Amino acid sequence: MSWIDYYGLLVCFWLLLCLLMISTKKTRALGLSLSFSTSVLFIGLTILQDHYGANVSYQLNKKEKFLEAMKSEEVTLNLTPSSWIQEIDGRGSNSIIPLKYRKQIGIAFPLGAAPNVKTFYCSEDDGFISYVTDRFGFRNEDDRWNSSAHDILILGDSFAESACIPTALQTTFSENLNVVSLGKGGNGPLSSLATFIEYNNRFKARIVYFLVVSNDYSRPTSHSLAIDLERELLEPELSKYLDESDNIQDYFNEQYLEHYKTFAVEHSKLLANTSLESDFTHLLRAISRIAFYDFFKSIVISQGSGNVNKTLRFIDRVALEQVYSKAIQTADNSSSKLIFVPLPDKASACNHDVKKLFIDDLLGGLNANVLDIWGDLCYGKFFANSGGHFNQLGYKFLADRIEADFLEN
User: 299-321: per-residue pLDDT in tens?
Assistant: First the structure.
């Protein structure tokens, strides 16, 4: 069971205790007092929760919205590369797509989502958003691929995919610039490297901006999820991009992806219609949501987020250097310029953040090109109130700084 289930048990125990006290004459007054206090607390939390936008039933809302969308059109969930990695961490086995389906669709390792289909994504300040993928399964206007050369290529994870906002960040660039993004939520450095290598097999970009987020290379010690690169290195098909100089699966070939869309639609239906929890677990989680587990959790996280010296674990430095060195080499071989863009997360400090010190030192040791805008973006105004990604203002600021750097270069 997860922490939310234990919390549900605790709430059940507390309510049972109150009932027992009420049923006993000697403790009835205290039981009534505790019951009244608990009711007032939960009502007060409801008001606060509505005011601050806490999302206590995200997955249930997402499932409901997705099932509703399925009734009127063809739609899929956002099947990201991270869901194809077989290594299980805090995501749980239900988030992993079984290995057998790679053989079914004929793809060694999917680097994008399903192509040419409406894709259901995430929700933060703007409600649940969806977008139609391009011919390769990424969040771009499809006509960007009519040219084999692009001015700007953006690599990275959900930040590069413009997570949870209605309009992709690359659409805010000047119209005369041809900008594409190959970002996918959950990507770590190795998935981004693999995508870059495959892209260079058929296309070319003048300047490549590699967005680097802290979960690529670090996690809080107590975090249930693995560091992104840590998990990627355990995937044989991704490791080939490091170990084999000529490893290519010809991913940016429309015919190669023709079976992916069919699979994604059917698999998304299966996930949406399958109950992954027992009735007892479902009951505990319902009680936990009623009792504001997520609200309490968000309070704890926000109180701890200002402590930039909290215990962190970092990826093996040599492993990360190997990935970034291969990315630099890949750019050099295609006469592109590669620029790394370290980004703060919502809990980051502007100065002396240990995550920034780690990544700055590592990139400095590689003599890599860096666009340093961490200090400019580390303010709360650039992040969603009800999530960890940038809001519209943050993404626009990021796009403006990248465009200014491109014009300068």
Answer: 444 444 444 445 899 999 999 99
Question: What's domain 58-275+312-408's superfamily in CATH?
Answer: SGNH hydrolase (3.40.50.1110)
In contact, 312 and 219? CB cutoff 8 Å: yes
- Centre a 10 Å sphere on the Cβ of residue 373 and count the other Cβ atoms it contains: 18
Rounded CA separation 326/310 (Å): 31
Task: With beta carbons less than 8 A apart as the criterion, state whether 289 and 9 touch.
Answer: no
In this prediction, residue 282 carries a pLDDT of 53
What is the spatial distance between Cα 178 and Cα 216, in angstroms, rounded to a whole number?
Answer: 27
Q: Is 254 exposed, middle or buried (0-12, 13-18, 19+ CB in 10 A)?
A: exposed
Assessment of whether the complete model's pTM goes beyond 0.85: no
Confirm if 249 and 260 have CB atoms less than 8 A apart. no
Mean pLDDT throughout 250-279? 83
Q: Report domain extents, the chain.
A: 3-53+283-301, 58-275+312-408
Burial class (CB in 10 A: 0-12, 13-18, 19+), 394: buried
Of 248, 269, 227, 265, which is closest to residue 113 (Cα–Cα)?
265
3-class SS at 374? helix
**Is the four-CA dihedral 386, 388, 271, 72 of positive or negative sign?**
positive
Amino acid in the structure at residue 89: D
More confident residue, 49 or 163: 163
Burial letters 304-335, b for 16+ CB under 10 A, else e: eeeebeeebebbeeebbbbbbebbbebbeebe
pLDDT, tens digit (0-9, with 9 covering 90-100), for 128-151: 899 999 999 999 999 999 999 999
Query: Averaged over 40-63, what is the pLDDT?
Result: 58
